[in-house]
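ok so for the tutorial part 2 we go from a plain amino acid sequence to predicted structure tokens. step 1 is just haveing the sequence, like this:
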Amino acid sequence: MKSGIHPEYNEINVTCSCGNSFTTRSTMKKALHVEVCSACHPFYTGKQKIVDTAGRVEKFRQKYGIAKK
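step 2 — the prediction. this is what the tokens look like for a chain of 69 residues:
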């Protein structure tokens, strides 16, 4: 590789909101914080994650006068 034109490749610590932490290599210079990782993502765990959107949907329906079917 030509010297002086490539970014520095560092080891960084990646921390997930679930508490999982691992080390990887990247051109970033600081730690990386992510919301989901392979330890907690439903695709990798096989568990379905329930997201509470009922309140938002109900608010939308009331705002626009849409009745439930």
